[in-house]
C-alpha cells in the first residue's frame, strides 16, 4: 500500500472530493456503505422500471406469496450488518418492498 493518498476519479465533482478529503476514516467508511447501498437502489429502480415498461411478465416463483405482484423481483438489503431478501416492485411512482427472509438462513 502506498503512503500517498488515492487519486479521485476525474468524473467525481470537486465538492464531493473536497468533502471526502475532510472526512474522518469512520465517516468515509459510512459514506462508502451508503454510496454502495444507494447505487444498488438506483440500479434496482432502473431494473424495476425497465421490467414494468417491457410488458413481459416473469414466471411466478413457487415461493411467491399471493399478495406479491408477478412483476416483483427479489433484492437484498443490508440492515445493521445483516443481509435480508425482500420482494420489490413498483406501484406508480413508488417502489414497494416486502420482507422475504434472511440471506443466511442461520440468522
TrEMBL record:
Residues 40-70 are annotated as: Disordered. Residues 40-50, 57-69 have a biased composition (Basic and acidic residues). Pfam families: DUF6788. Residues 72-106 form the DUF6788 domain. This is DUF6788 domain-containing protein.
